[in-house]
Queue: 2 jobs
Job 1
Amino acid sequence: DSGVTQTPKHLITATGQRVTLRCSPRSGDLSVYWYQQSLDQGLQFLIQYYNGEERAKGNILERFSAQQFPDLHSELNLSSLELGDSALYFCASSVVGVGTGELFFGEGSRLTVL
Amino acid sequence: GENVEQHPSTLSVQEGDSAVIKCTYSDSASNYFPWYKQELGKRPQLIIDIRSNVGEKKDQRIAVTLNKTAKHFSLHITETQPEDSAVYFCAATSTGNQFYFGTGTSLTVIP
């Protein structure tokens, strides 16, 4: 158990719909990252938050948005879903401070768009 | 920004042989280089990491080497076992910044 909690674990929805994925980082970790992993693909970086502020942005579609709340949990919103959005979405957290720390991944949310 | 390249994309070895995966990076500011193992359908998990002030680190059958001058780092797995079969990702980052991942290496250990 990495200490990073993601919900839901599985989600099946239809094209055009909107979903929200939730992530609770490890206790004490201020930085949250979202990654998308399509079948047999690598880890595509979407976005990073640090203590509530957006820190870095990757190849995140305009249909996707995210935020980090004061209690440090984060949500990834995916709207106008397309078949190609089907993927495993990972949230990860890390300690950001004097030294860069390990990135801890959650179990992922598997999204299937039909 | 940083660019991490990883080779090979697939690797098959006989059980007991060694496996080597190589990564290069472009940003000299990167100072932390972790390696993650991802089994099918599971989350990536850290197996070993190295910081820029160290040239080599070992943990039982796994070792990582770093050449800052050439900007490359490598993962070495000795005496491979079937349970080592997985996808391995290298990454590079600097303090407070995003982690840049390689494209992954699918390792198959043949019994």
Job 2
Amino acid sequence: AQSVAQPEDQVNVAEGNPLTVKCTYSVSGNPYLFWYVQYPNRGLQFLLKYITGDNLVKGSYGFEAEFNKSQTSFHLKKPSALVSDSALYFCAVRDYGNNRLAFGKGNQVVVIP
Amino acid sequence: GAGVSQSPSNKVTEKGKDVELRCDPISGHTALYWYRQSLGQGLEFLIYFQGNSAPDKSGLPSDRFSAERTGGSVSTLTIQRTQQEDSAVYLCASSLVAVNTGELFFGEGSRLTVL
């Protein structure tokens, strides 16, 4: 089965500093990778996806993610974090053979003013 | 509606009672998913509908859990004889077609607390 791992439980970053949320994947075949964000008491919102093409994918709210095949990683990045970026971030991979996404356990991001 | 709607938003019930959770997907979306979100556990897949059929119900944790979808639209997740370990946020998502390269649209969830 396809899976993703998000090794950190919480990421703390000062406002204005770069933000990185880590994700590694395990798939057979070409990976379809996604990032979602969940603000407090809200549903998950799509941020960006990698299907094919450029390894650097740009998404909503100034976020981007870099697909690295050799390291099997798909880290989420933002050059300058905002307090409003404080949320729960989920990495996901399409589960081949099943029409669904497999999600990681999520990372809580706290941006400190 | 404009988005995926779930009800109730909060449900507190006593152990042993049955509960029903409802999901109204985005109009025209043929695929519908139920996930469960528990603290520290991430999102756990429960069941997937394509139209009114459920080709994948492998994530349902026990036979106390069932779901149906009618008219290719509204879905109901039923939990019978609830247990405390059923306490979680139940998320519904829909997509235009079964997830391939597209995105899922999530509702805000139904928070279930079993006392």
